[in-house]
């Protein structure tokens, strides 16, 4: 039992729930982590003054401070703290990208490191945090700026090619905007197609409160379609699209094998 939340309609009912949970925890020899516990009272959708709850052994669970608390990695108080959480995620994401670019990783592994160590920070909150299009595009722009500063992306390099997979001649970086939208679509598709009784009962609530932010589309199909759109935009450009257009008529699966070799440096991959 971990990350437990208790809800009650009154302070008296909450004390009963806490006492029951405390007794059960004692029976299985599990201690309360009081330093990680907090209580909050919500009246008409707003936080109200609350002094906390007493435990049977005399300990006390204090009231929640203004900074909120983390539940499953997401900052909350009486509701999700979207602004604060997005600021934390953005700061940590940028720090990780900078950390990766300070290493001596070659081109392929640089992109893989960003995709597997930095991008998941933003992906985790997709469908939960209310990211705007501008905020997501700003993160992508910041990523490209850091790549250019560290010699991993040419100032005049094509943006679309950066997000096309290496097997198709691209750089293989994952776009923050596309990753978040894809996860939102996947969550929407799962909920709308689910036959689980509990999820079925919540569907109407999800729709009314506009919790389902995405479109109903298969995740794999969504990924393929977005990459194909990127590839077509790259190929259709007058300057940057010349090489892929000329190679395409005679290309085979091995034509882009040099892009997946690990011994090419960042600057070489950007040519």
What is the fold's blueprint, element by element?
Blueprint: H1 11-27, E1 41-43, E2 46-48, E3 53-54, E4 60-61, E5 69-71, E6 74-76, H2 82-101, H3 107-123, H4 133-149, H5 159-162, H6 176-193, H7 197-208, H8 219-235, H9 242-247, H10 266-269
Antiparallel strand pairs: 1-2, 3-4, 5-6
Structural account:
- It is a single chain.
- With 271 residues, the chain is mostly helical.
- It is 49% helix and 6% strand.
- A two-stranded antiparallel sheet has the order 1-2. It has a two-stranded antiparallel ribbon with strand order 3-4.
- Helix 2 runs parallel beside helix 4 and helix 6 runs antiparallel to helix 8.
- The longest helix is centred in the middle third of the chain and has 20 residues, at 82-101.
